[in-house]
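User: I'm putting together notes for a lab meeting next week and I want to include a structural view of one of the chains we've been expressing. I don't have a solved structure, so I'd like a prediction I can at least talk through. The sequence is below, exactly as it appears in our construct file.
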Amino acid sequence: MLGAAEAMCERNFTATTVQRLSFESVGKLEELIVAEATPAGAPSPGRDAPEGDIPEGAGQTQAATVASGGRRAFLQELKEDPGPLQLETLLAEIVKLERVKAIRLPAALFEGVSEKVVAGWRARAMKMYPSDFEAAAPPVRLTLPAASCQVRQAELIDGLVELLIQLVHKISVRAEKKVAGELNAEFRRVQGKNGILVKLATAALELPEEIVRKALYPVVGERTLEDIIAEAKANEKELRTRVRTLQADDGRPGPAEALRRLRHRLLRRRRGGAAGARGARRLARRGPQPRQRPGGAHPVRAVRAGGAA
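Assistant: Thanks for the context. Below is the predicted structure for the 309-residue chain, given as structure tokens.
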């Protein structure tokens, strides 16, 4: 009884998930599975899939993906944590986030589903081998990478924020150390400046008509006067300016690009929140409507037919 109920829940969940996917998203998810099962640079093997599972044009995209060669399977990349704290890692995580967003999963894909359920499907996908995806039923085969990408997208955004904070802090510390080293090399700390000032004042008063080189240089050397001037110029304002300059040179364009993309993502989420709520209420009133594909069968129906078979 429990096994039958669990199987029924899984069928309902996967059928609802596939029904919410657009044609484009179905094609891109199938691409991920093909790329996962195909070695880099190898030709894509044919699969016996129900007609209508993949929208028109998806085969061309798959061919382009395989033809690129040398690129690791994206599902494998999603399992990996960020690398060392450096600018290249930040840029790599931005690219990874953009690739997840390119699948165009609906924001309400798992609306009304417990987070634990989605996390369970994500964990299941993380443990699967490429052959397991190929052997799974079409609804399950699409739901697994969809859950993995949906959960991973939120994790990537949070990870980018944390990585950006750490990277900016690292750049700031390194810039401050570099500026301090440059300033220390630029001038020597002059000890006893009060005594030197007294000597200069005394010499100036005793020889008011004499030129500076003859009156003051014998009392305080030219090098000492240069050191005093250099030390006086190295004030807090100059230090902050040079630190900011080094930070900008060291961090460009990674932190700025990450901030731009994260801001764009948050603005889209804020604008889409109200519209998404209105759409959910309309959907609840009229019930889910199947998408009609011009001139062809609906992929969800084909998936259901394949699952029932």
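A couple of points you could mention at the meeting. The chain has two domains: 2-167+273-283+297-308, 188-233. The two ends are 22 Å apart (CA to CA).

User: Perfect, that's what I needed.
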